[in-house]
Amino acid sequence: MNDLYPLNDAMNAVFADRDILPTDVPQLDLYMDQILSLFEQCLGGSKRDPSDKLLTKTMVNNYVKEGLITPVRGKKYTRQQIMQLLCVYHLKQTLRLNDIKALTGRDDVDFEACYTRLLEDKERMRAVIPPLLREQLPVDTDDPNERLSLCLALSEIACYLRRLCESLIDAIPEQTGGK
Fold first, then answer.
1. If you ran DSSP here, which 8-state letter would residue 72 be given?
2. Which of 30, 59, 116, 160 could join 34 via S-S bond, C-beta 3.0 to 4.6 A?
């Protein structure tokens, strides 16, 4: 039996994730607690488990210490730093921190423009990927063999895309933060 309903429900849920829009980020500098609240408010629905933490003070402090985002002056984060943090948040879902640093630990990037482009790209992906998956990967999710096979295929797709990112990062010239 080819039962796509559970798979369709899962894809609908995954691809219905909410994003922090640039208009959600105030033009004013924010304190750490305000940033954590913004992330929780806007992205909390994408947690796998309600007890998961999207972002913590320790994470943000480590990102600053490791050079993934620019140093904070005082206790407030600028809009540019918040956009930088949003880019780090998305990249850390897939890439290692050193790779993220090569991309975000820079001052020659317009993080708001890049983040806005990400949101546009995500809209296109949300329209294209679910039908492609339904066509290419039909499975009976009640069958443990079919479920494992599907997860293996999806994992491999993620691996190919991660390796492509790594290849692009490895091509960054040495003097600008690449390997």
1. P
2. 30
pLDDT digits (tens, 9 = 90+) for 37-68: 999 999 998 888 999 999 999 999 999 999 99
Q: Which residues contact 85 (CB under 8 A, 6 or more apart)?
A: 35, 55, 60, 63, 69, 77
Whole-angstrom Cα distance, residue 119 to residue 19?
Answer: 8
Give per-residue burial for 8-33: e unless 16+ CB within 10 Å, then b.
eeebeeeeeeebbeeeebeeebbebe
Question: Coil, strand or helix: which one is 77?
Answer: strand
The Cα–Cα gap between 125 and 170 comes to 25
- CA dist 82 and 26 (Å) reads 10
The fraction of the chain above a pLDDT of 90, given in percent, is 68
CA distance to 55, 81, 96, per residue, from 69 (Å):
14, 7, 15
Cα separations in angstroms, 92 against 10, 101, 135: 22, 10, 29
Are the C-beta atoms of residues 90 and 117 closer than 8 Å to each other?
Answer: no
Q: Give dist(CA 170, CA 178) in Å, integer.
A: 6
Q: Which residues have C-beta within 8 Å of that of residue 12, sequence separation ≥ 6?
A: 130
CB 122 within 8 A of CB 138: no
Across the range 30-40, mean pLDDT stands at: 96
